[in-house]
Specification:
CATH architecture: Up-down Bundle
CATH superfamily: LemA-like domain
Shape: rod-shaped
Number of domains: 1
Number of strands: 0
Structural class: mainly alpha
Number of helices: 5
CATH class: Mainly Alpha
CATH topology: de novo design (two linked rop proteins)
Amino acid sequence: MKKWLIPVIIIAVIVIASYSWAKGVNNTAVTLNESISEAWGNVETSYQRRNDLIGNLVNTVKGAADFEKSTLEAVINARSRATSVTIDPTNITPEQLNQFNQAQGGVSSALSRLLVTVEKYPDLKANQNFLKLQDELASTENQILTARTRFNEAVKPYNNHIKVFPNNLLAGMFGFTEKAYFKAVEGADLAPEVEFDFDKKPQ
């Protein structure tokens, strides 16, 4: 073998190895990023289901005589604010996720106050639509918790992949940045109270 071929072969091996490594870093990050987008879609679907249920719940509760208007308006306004917050799953920053989380926490808080207020209206106890919505809300809160957990589970391997050395040398060049995790805002980690004592007398 001619001596000049040795450095050429070494360079060729280095180039091929570097290409394979860069390709692996990029393709794995793309795959993990798609998993995050899918998980985020499930999060949005779960919250959308709750929003749809809230609309039905509000319409049902409106039928109760003299029901507190301010309580209903608080729920409607909170839902409106929450639906106005949109996030691009390919570029989720901690600030964006916190804004989304705060908005959804506002819905949980307003909805919880609404359901507690319902205790003063025993006529709703016989309303089958309300009872069905009550069960569906409890189920939806569990779905939201599951979706958020799975989103965080999808974020972890992606963040690990792009942050470990030497992958982090290329991740930024390819446009891959760290994703934010769901963190519970104060009180948002608790599902709205959906078990009522309809026989309880107002104070």
